[in-house]
Amino acid sequence: MRLRVDLLPHGNYPDVVLVIDVLRATTTAVTYLERGAEALLLTATPEVALSLRGEAPEGGLLLGGERGGLPIPGFDFGNSPVEAAAQNFTGRVVVMNTTNGTGAAHTAAQTGKHVLLAALTNAHAAARRARALATEEIAIVCAGTDLHVGLEDVYAAGVLAEYLLAMGEFSIDDGTRIALTVRRNAGNPIEALGSSGHGQHLVGLGLGDDVRYAAQVSTSTLVPVLGEAQEIPEALRFVAG
I need a surface site. Which of 82, 161, 173, 220 has the fewest CB within 10 A? Predict the structure, then answer.
């Protein structure tokens, strides 16, 4: 079994893919489903998200997303796990579009047999699910920030890699070695996320609570899983797995 970490999304994933955008899309996605959302639709663009709401019955869809860390005009919510944790989404469908995370999920879905969303909050559960599904390779894919490698995602990839290596034998690539080295040398989760460039950006926007929320490790057993049937080509439907 192979274990691979891509520090940025590259594609060509033959088996299981764990997509990470710890600050904040995948953390928020887990929270939406924890708070009762029926499904998440991750769109390719904000325009697709707005058009889906325009086609749905009134109140049928809720939109959450950001650009540059700030809510997208016309959306109901930003990309804040703290904000999501305070809501009740029972039976609702949430449409998400974010600067980095939703794009990484679309890249993974082009070839991946099984696509899961992972964060620190569900790290152990996501690793267990990936190991149960994989037959040849687990790829951990870091979303990064604006096409640059993000310390926070690499750190989270290292946490996932540690869990996976504790479950069995893998051949690993240099991306995995880098992630493990970062995990072992970047301090505790709040230090790693808070010292990252994107973490500092969010703190500067007054969103430090989101950084602290995202730094919690294995507080959730929920794993967002890409459904087998995709009815809307430009929107990936994830459900609780």
Answer: 173
| pLDDT tens by residue, 17-32 | 999 999 999 999 999 9
Instruction: Give me the phi and psi of 60, to 5 degrees please.
Output: -75, -30
CA distance 209 to 11: 32
pLDDT in tens, 142-165: 999 999 999 999 999 999 999 999
Task: Report whether the peptide linkage leading into residue 183 is cis, meaning its omega lies within 30 degrees of zero.
Answer: no
| Per-residue tokens: 152 | 């926070």
- Residue 171 to residue 3: CA distance in whole angstroms: 6
> Is the distance from CB of 97 to CB of 42 less than 8 angstroms?
yes
Largest Cα–Cα distance in the chain? Answer: 51
HEC secondary structure over the chain? CEEEEECCCCCCCCCEEEEECCCCHHHHHHHHHHCCCCEEEEECCHHHHHHHHHHCCCCCEEEEEEECCEECCCCCECCCHHHHHCCCCCCCEEEEECCCHHHHHHHHHCCCCEEEEECCCCHHHHHHHHHHHCCCEEEEEECCECCECCHHHHHHHHHHHHHHHHHCCCEECHHHHHHHHHHHHCCCHHHHHHHCHHHHHHHHCCCHHHHHHHCCCCCCCCCEEECCCCCCCCEEEEEEC
The residue to which tokens 């034998």 are assigned: 169
